[in-house]
Amino acid sequence: MSTAIGSLATATGPHLFWITSRAAGIAALLLSSLAVCMGLLMGGRFAKRRGPELRVTHEALSLATLAAIAVHGLTLIGDGFLHPSLADVSIPFVSGYETLWTSAGIVAFWALALLGLSYYARTRIGVQRWRKLHRLTALAWALGVAHSLGEGTDAGQMWFLAMTAIAVLPALALLAIRWLAPALSPSKRLEHT
Amino acid sequence: MSLARGTTAIVEAPLLASLAYLLSRPGTLSPDA
Fold first, then answer.
1. A59 contacts in B (CB within 8 Å)?
2. Share of chain A above pLDDT 90, in %
């Protein structure tokens, strides 16, 4: 492990923290999009056969997303070019670097953390109330995607845009199905007659 | 596999893959590039 870290430090020169932060941001984008997909699938017909597996996968992906975002923000503190403080990477509107997009990313992280980790307090919150709150996770995820497209170092690269599209579009399609399905279902149509 | 070990493995895979990919693209390794 130490040999691998040594090789990595040699390969990246003085930018080990910077490149690790970028890699963690990419990982967070992929993991969060997958977590949103799994969460949305849990509410569909697919969940009837695969419910418990989906729930565990959704939970692991959500925790992995939070870990990847934590690595994304904390490794940036070690970067010798930007020199951000802990406050810069954890409190919205403190950083002077791309303030709006940085703040969007920070708000997205705290929202994902609160909405995700509140799962473990759902009985105290009330399961129905928690489910309603948890739906806001999709907005926090979208804010994170906006942060990566608005500020990401690689956002102008074709490979990054293609990767983002592959990760994000299925989640957006599932979100659209979730929003539109109740309006289109025969039972709802009957309710409105 | 426990949730903690599974989560760690799930973080590691895309993180290391992203690192490997970024390292294979010289010229974009620096923030001032």
1. 3
2. 66
